[in-house]
Amino acid sequence: MDQTLAVRQFLMELLARRGDSQDFSDNSSLLVSGRLQSIDAVEIAVFLEELFGINFAETGFDQDTVDSVEAISELIRLTKRDPPLNAQT
Fold first, then answer.
1. Mean pLDDT in runs of 10 for the chain (89 residues)?
2. pTM given for the model
């Protein structure tokens, strides 16, 4: 699965859990805008650690880097060293 599609699908699921089915673009703010909450940022971080191997202990966590599909894709691109272990799923 394409990384941007995987991220978009995960964010859509988070929004759906909050009853938000409104569409969003790849550069739409989801956390800063209030559509997602800080607890959702934790879920995003865990998702990125598990699927893409991003180690926030090394990179540090900045809400702006997980605020949109575009920002997350850039974070993945900048931190991706090795293919994710579970990419075959």
1. 91 96 96 95 96 91 94 91 51
2. 0.84
